[in-house]
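Please predict the structure of the following assembly.
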Amino acid sequence: MANVSLQNLKKQFGTAVAVSDFSLQIEDGELVAFLGPSGCGKTTTLRMIAGFVAPTSGRIFIGDVDVTHMPAHKRNTGMVFQRYALFPHMTVSENIAFGLEMHKVPAVERDKRIKAAQDMVRMTNFKDRYPRQLSGGQQQRVAIARALAIQPKVFLLDEPLSNLDAKLRQEVRDEVRALQQNLGLTTIFVTHDQEEALAISDRMVIMHDGIVQQVGTPNDLYERPRNLFVADFLGKMNFFTGSVNPQGAFVSESGVLIKTSPLTEAVKTVGVRPERVYLANEPMFDNSIRVDIKAVAYLGSHIDVTAQYTNRSLLRCQVANSSAIVTDGLRVGSSAWANFKADDCVVLDT
Amino acid sequence: MSKPTDSLVLKAKLGMGLAFPASVVVLLIIFVPMLMMARYSLNQFSPGQLMKAAFTVSNYVEFFNDPYYRKVFLSTVQIAAICTVLALLGGFPVAYFLAKTQSRYKSLLIILLVFPLMVGNVVRSAGWMVILGNAGAINSLLKWLGVIDQPIKLLYTPLAVVIGTTAVVLPYMILTLQSVLEGIDFSVEEAAQNLGANMFTAFRRIVLPIAAPGVAAGTMLVFILCMNAYATPVLLGGSGITMMAPSIYAQIARASNWPMGSTMAMILLSASLLMALTSNWLIHRRYQKTMIS
């Protein structure tokens, strides 16, 4: 295993800039997620690290070796592809054996590793099956085993769970995380699914249009987003645009005064997460807004309430389904107070 | 449960009914003449009449005993084999490139590929005559460059036949290969490289085995086309080289020896099929456990 250093990576296709000035230090054993909408550059960056795309400028170091211009097959990165990319003309064992053969691992060691890899992903009973005889989840596990059998320095995953159904996705995701931690693998995980990224990464990189928006732990990024894109992209957010008045208080365009902390003159947007907005029959906390309930969506574990204030603005509130009493009182058309604390607000100067 | 099966049976009958006219036409146009030729091949040749009704294999015996006929047969097989190999070697890179390219000109390139097929073999062979002839493009160029004094004999040689035939079958080979290669998910190539295989190893161990069915199909098609080539060998081969199809024509149209002509036709038919199927079988066997389908 090794650390990875990306220095000012840039990739341009003609006039389109896919990745712009990407720099990052990934520690040995860390799982870093690249998260962002389609086309944000996360897969391109991953492919530059794997060696399938040559950077327009910038450098890539694996361990202390500059691999920027090293061909893909020499980099010793193990990659799991979105569509598995298993060799259809080889059995599960043969698929796993291929990398070991390429790395000239002696036969005895090779057999040991194949067996270990198969056991690790619980595919031992399928070792003589062909990919077409396996389900999506099984194929993905073989792909993981195949990538890890060669004991790569870096483990790369390109949206490995996108083609799996929801339940399976969570299972495989947890398995990957468990494996990664047990083996201490330096891992880069590309995904467009926030839940995945939040759930398993040590750190996340959020990208948009080729530019890194913010890097940090899941907690950092969710609780303290540093720009509008990150605040809006992760989870849901209620935004109040406005400005700080001469008296030093933030007033939204709709005329609502909001107490936040911290508060500086430069603040232009204040945000508060729906789960931090408490609907009650009376005002409480630092901020209380009188609202009319417009829509109630029952989602099982929680309830999404859309409430209206000052004629046109909407506020989203998330109510935990902790008891029937709480949820019974939510009726479309009724009024309530939407309360939230100053500490729970996110302030942005854009 | 009777209703769904009733409608299924009705659909099947309807399908068969609709296919009937076309099947009859195919039967009449293709199989009946072939059966007739098979019958004629067993007749005896008699110079005055077209043929004498008989039931003899003497024509077949004569064909295989006569060194002249054997040579015709072997030349045909040789040339067909050479052309097939050349088409494969030349066509595969093109098909590979076409299958992988994302270029917006892809459709255009494919049309360019198919274009020559619209022109027709005879016209294309005429074109080759202009290029390969003693006063043709190549000889004129070489003379002008001072490389030669006397023209090189290119036309009316086996080489000319090989060039002309390969040119004709190349698009067929490319299109067959390309359609198979299109179906390959090329991330397996990347996966192979990621696991330590260089470009060539990845191609040899991964892409090629997966493409094997396509290669087999393309080879079979092209080989049969080459074995049965008529216009190209006649126009470009001249008297120096005799192949089966022109020879059959000569037997039937000029020598009026229908039994012999029919015999040769039957031999050509069986030989082409047999050799093509054998090569197909061999390729399948070689890549048996490694093939997808």
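The mean pLDDT of chain B is 86. DSSP finds twelve helices and no strands in chain B.
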